[in-house]
Write a structure and sequence with these properties.
Elements lengths: L8 H12 L3 E4 L6 E6 L5 E5 L7 H6 L10 H13 L14
Antiparallel strand pairs: 1-2, 2-3
Protein name: Ferredoxin
């Protein structure tokens, strides 16, 4: 039923897998903020902040609410660099330009 907590074992396992499987730890090359990153394709990136987004120096410098803005461009550069180096895996068989 809508609004009920998920209790079916397979659904709980699927949810946990979606939230944790494939994520790798990464620190921003600019400010060192810690995140967990997962690439499902070259274009799609999932990011889970390990601490507060307020620890990001770019977010702190402009004072905007981090929940209302896109991800930090410096962090995205760090993720792109890590993906290029293979630190953050990108699934094989994904062609450039494929969503």
């Amino acid at each position: 039923m809508f609004g009920e907590p998920v209790t079916e074992p397979s659904t709980v396992a699927d949810r946990e897998g979606f939230l944790t499987d494939g994520y790798v730890p990464l620190a921003c090359g600019t400010c060192g903020v810690a995140v967990q990153v997962k690439k499902n394709s070259r274009e799609q990136t999932s990011i889970q902040w390990r601490g507060s987004a307020r620890d990001c120096t770019v977010f702190a410098a402009d004072g905007a609410d981090s929940a209302l803005r896109p991800t930090c461009p410096r962090l995205m550069e760090s993720i792109a660099r890590a993906a290029k180096l293979g630190t953050v895996p990108v699934p094989e068989g994904i062609q450039e330009g494929t969503p």
